[in-house]
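Protein data:
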Amino acid sequence: MSRGNPDNLRRAAAAKSAAAHSRADHGIREMIRRNVPVTFRGLAQTAGVSLDFLYRNPEIRHRVEQLRTQQRSAPPAPSPPADPDHPSSVVRTLTVQITELKRRHREEVQTLKSALEAVHGENLELRRRLGGHRPHPAEISPSSNC
């Protein structure tokens, strides 16, 4: 059995990395828009990416460090009273919940895709073992249909 096409694997890895990079960019913009401190942990949670990815990506790492420094040196913005029924609090809470649901959904879809690929492989292997021989309808005895 072959180990797969290396070019396809490289393209898939590049696509996965590009998607994570895009989610991180969007996460940074979202954190700035919501006026929350930009941290590696906060960005990882907001963007649905790993801390390892953020630390290993020089461009994103530099942006997070730069924004963190800017936010520390900037005077704190006056915070509105913490009213849990305030629309922005509700939106923030729902946004966090949706982000988490999307992350879990992506993980579940990936797990299901992996399982489906494995089953397709097993199916192909079994079909090869049978040698493509399909019994003729006359070969099937009536008693085997029970």
In short: The mean pLDDT is 83. The radius of gyration is 25 Å.
